[in-house]
Each structure stands twice: as C-alpha cells, then as structure tokens.
Amino acid sequence: SRRRRLGATRTCASWAGCSPRPSTTSRAVRGTRRRPSTAVRRRSAPSSHLVALLRRYEAWHRRCGPGSPLFGEAVEHLRSGRNAARSECQYAVWTPFNGLGNRMLALASTFLYALLTDRVLLVHAPQEFDGLFCEPFPGSSWTLPAGFPIADFDATFTMLSPTSYKNMKKAGTINGGDRVNVTAEGLPAYVFLDLIQSYTDAAFCEADQRVLAKFNWMVVKSDVYFATALFLMPAYRRELARLFPEKEAAFHHLARYLFHPSNDVWGIVRQFYEAYLAGADERVGLQVRVFQEVPVPFETMYGQIMRCLEQEGLLPKVALAQQNAAAARNTSAVPPPDGRKTKVTSILVTSLSPEYYERIRGVYHANWTETGDYVVVHQPSHDGVQHTEARGHNQRALAEIYLLSFCDRIVTTAVSTFGYVAHGLAGVRSWVLLRSPSPETPAEPACVRSSTVEPCMQAAPRQMCGAAKGSDIGGLAPYVRHCEDVHGGVKLF
Ligand code: GDP
Fold it and tell me: Is 289's C-beta closer than 6 angstroms to any atom of ligand 1?
C-alpha cells in the first residue's frame, strides 16, 4: 500500500500536567512519520554531544525548575527586588511576541542561549499559547507557575522598560564595558533582554554577555531567530561546532527536541494527514502568505506560484486542450507514457485565504495532466485574518506548520517565519516564492531553492562585536550568508 500512516495509538497529555515524554503521541510518532524520502536529503542525526548536553540540561531543569526548593529560593530573591550574589540556578524566561512562527523561532533561540549560558528555560504562557505544546523536559515543567512575582508581562516589557539591558546601559545603571566591575549584588533583580527585530544589536558582545551573566533572572522577548548570532560570537563558536557539526540542522534539531504538539493539535494533524495526505505518492506543501504591508494582488501571486511549480518541476503539467478533449472522449489520451502505474501527488495548501486553493484545485479538477498522473489539492483551514490572540486559531496554525513539515517538497513564501519553521522542522530546503520589489510586478524568478534548511535571522545585528566597522555580517564566517528573501538577514548553511 502506498499509504503512509501516522501509526501511534498512545495519547499525548497536553500543556497542563503533561505526562513524561515516551507517552506522548506527537513524540512517539515523529520518528516513524518522517520516512526518508528520495525527493529530499534529510538531516543527519543529532550529535552525541548535543544529546549528552540535553540529558544534562534535563537533570538541571529538574533540579532548578518550578516546584524545586532552589526555584523557591530564586523566586524569593526576585520578589525581594535584589539580585543574589551567588545563585546555583539562573533562569531565562521567554515571553511571546508576534505570530506563532516568530514565537517558535525566538523560543528555540532562547533555549539555545539557555543551553550555552547555563540557564534554565522557563516560558511565560498566556492563554493563547497554552494548549499548543507538550512539556518538553521530563519530570519538570517549563511553565512559570501561578504566583510568579512578575504578572503583567505585556506592560512590564516594552521598548521603554527601564529594566531592559540596552536602556540600563544607556542610563548608566550598568556598564557593558570590561573595565567596570559591576557586582552581582549591585544589580536589579532581573534584566530584560529586548531582542525584538531592530534591537538585536543590544546583546551580542562578549562584554555584554559578561554583565548579563551576573543576573540570575533574565526575561527574553524576541520575534527573531537570534540563534544565528550566537554562532558568530567567538565565545560560543567552539561549543556550537561540537553541538551542531551540521550547522544547517541547528534549528531542525532544536525544534524537534523542544516542540511537541499537544493532543488537540496532534488530533488535527493526524486526522488531516490520514484523510488527505497519507495515500499520496508524493506530498507537495505550498504555503501562501500575503502580508498586509505588501498586499500582492491575487492574480500576481497566483501567477507566481504556478510559474514556480512549473519551472521547478514540482507538479505534473496540465494537459493541452486536445489531450483534454481526447480524454473526455474516453480514448485514453493521457496514459502514463512508460506504462507505469499512475502517481498521485497531494498538494497541501496553507494560507489564511481560500482563493489559492480554490483556483489550483479547479485547474487540476478540470484538466488531465500531461503524464496522466493525478494531482489532488487540499487546504485544512482558511481563517481569513491572523488572530494570534485566539488559541483555536493558533492550534490550527501549528497543525498546519506540522502538516507542511510532513511534505516531501515545500514551497514557502518569502519573509514568512511560518514557512521557516515548517521547512526547518522537516529538515528540507524549501523553494522560496521571492518578493518582488513592488507588489504589482511579478517576481522574477518566481522562486529559488533555499541554500539551507535554517531559518533566516531577519533582523541581524548591524555590527557584531570584534568585527571591523562596516564589515558585512554575511561575510563574517564561512558558514553564514545573506538570506535569499531578506537581504539584510543572515542564515547558517
Ligand atoms: P509570519 O508572519 O508569516 O512570519 O508568520 P507568523 O506565524 O509569525 O505569523 C502569522 C500568523 O498568521 C500565524 O501564526 C497564524 O496565526 C496566521 N497564519 C498565517 N498563515 C497561515 C496559514 O497558512 N494557516 C493558518 N492556519 N494560519 C496562518
């Protein structure tokens, strides 16, 4: 049978009270789901060094995490408003910002940062984030418990916050320079690391890191895949090279370790996959994202998608009119040329809008293909507009990210972090539908194959510490380059 089944029967406890790792469906299934495909090169297994570090981290998280005496002590210090001189456990608290793709990139980056700096990763999970993921760390929780001294994250952590590292530096509260001996006790109880888009400049100097290391509590807010910048810091290079011998797979391994869809989300994934994708010979994922700030007209975008699919040979071509007519007369106009079995390709369309799905489906419904193969088209949801504040909407979005990641070939829209996460989880290089300089003009070429599986760090620091003034961040190391879709951004390859 050509059917590729999901196969797991065990249940996955979701966010609240998540059960230990082996009994979760999304975990149990992952390995079996991603059967190596001949169409794409999959990533190598995680390094033994990464695996060993994760096991040590898990033990560390249990020792310092919510519910432990050490956590209680650290929270008391936080409540007192003072940074303790010496603390066995230090914490990085991640708080969400922007859409789900942005959130997953920033959370994975914060986790890597926590691993490199010996911090315990905790997550501030507002209601719309709750119910998306299982707990990742066995025997403990990453969720901030009720009664945590900081409650109103949105109001507390803004670009003007006096607790933000860059604002403290500006105000002279602390000094990032080597010469200034800031004692840990002289520091506020926590630091806010503001890494939102254009603020990624703030923290990637070694001198900054030395000051930041003195804070026992750190709150990280970002919508950027800032993990890339860590690979450019001399202090972390050696360790990162051991952790990720294949740099291109950094996000892939981090995300597959950290993210496990909850029961509810996995239910959507599983049902849809079994019903519409499992039976196909090949699955092509097409993610269409039209940004409000660049409102590409439907016909322009549709034309670009079809040019990309055709030029890159991602789908069989639609038959010419006479072939269609002959087929309609039932004269078997389009048998597979070599007498082989017909192939079924399933296209998974994900988009906030239903129009792309409807048009593409209409084309393949009404026409034969030149090869006689079949193309079926499906779209799980079309919510119309982004509703990051709504849990159900986010659950559908997460399910679709995973469904895309189960496709053999993935076509994504330029600049979209939703697409980055999907192909990153899959471990494949996507075809990127490029952004045209003007929304009205068709992009040329329609798409390019990404040079890497890695997400793009869109808002790269303008200057990395230690680099000569004006040097190009895309040329700082042999393993970074500018992104195809965001020229100012960089990515690992
Ligand atoms: P980006 O804005 O494309 O970088 O991606 P984000 O994931 O950060 O934000 C876009 C948000 O819009 C998603 O998280 C969803 O909430 C919603 N969205 C965008 N495209 C889709 C889609 O294809 N399917 C679903 N279900 N939601 C989408």
Answer: yes
- The answer, as to whether pTM is greater than 0.90, is yes
How many Cα atoms occupy the beta-carbon half-sphere of 353 within 13 Å? 15
pLDDT tens figures, 298-332: 999 999 999 999 999 999 999 887 778 877 776 65
Residue nearest to atom 22 of ligand 1 (CA): 351
Q: How far away, in angstroms, is 57 Cα from ligand 1 center?
A: 31
* Domain boundaries 263-492, CATH class: alpha beta
Residue of 133, 131, 142 lying closest to 67 (CA atoms): 142
What distance in angstroms lies between residue 242's CA and the mean position of ligand 1's atoms? 34
Q: How far apart are CA 6 and CA 31, in angstroms?
A: 10
Q: What is the ipTM of this complex?
A: 0.99
CATH 3.40.50.11350 domain extents, the chain: 263-492
Answer for the pair 273, 140: CB distance below 8 angstroms, yes or no. Answer: no
Cis-peptide, bond into residue 445, ω within 30° of zero: yes
pLDDT digits (tens, 9 = 90+) for 68-113: 999 999 999 999 998 987 789 999 999 999 999 999 999 999 999 9
Counted residue by residue, the chain has a size of 493
Helices within 66-186 (DSSP H only): 69-80, 100-117, 153-156, 165-171
